[in-house]
Amino acid sequence: MISRCQQGDQEALKEIFDKYHKRVYRIAYGVVRHREEALDIVQEVFIKLFRSIKNFKGKSQFYTYLYRMVMNTAIDHSRKIGKQFISSLDAEGSFEPSEEIEKGPEKTLLQKELEEKVKWAMEKLPGEQRAALLFREVEGLSYQEMADAMGCSIGTVMSRLHYGRKRMQELLKDYVGPHGQTSGPSNPIKGEGIR
Amino acid sequence: MKDSCLSISELLEKYFDQEVTEGEKHLVENHLQNCPSCRDTLTSLEGLKSLIKAPVEKAAQEEDFPWVWQKIKREIQPQEKQGRWPSLRFWLVPSPLLKKKVWVPAVATAVLLMALTTQVIFKKTPSYSDASVVKYVESQTHHIMVYESENAKMTMIWLFDEGDQESSKS
Question: What's the CA gap between A113 and A188, in Å, rounded?
Answer without folding.
Answer: 11
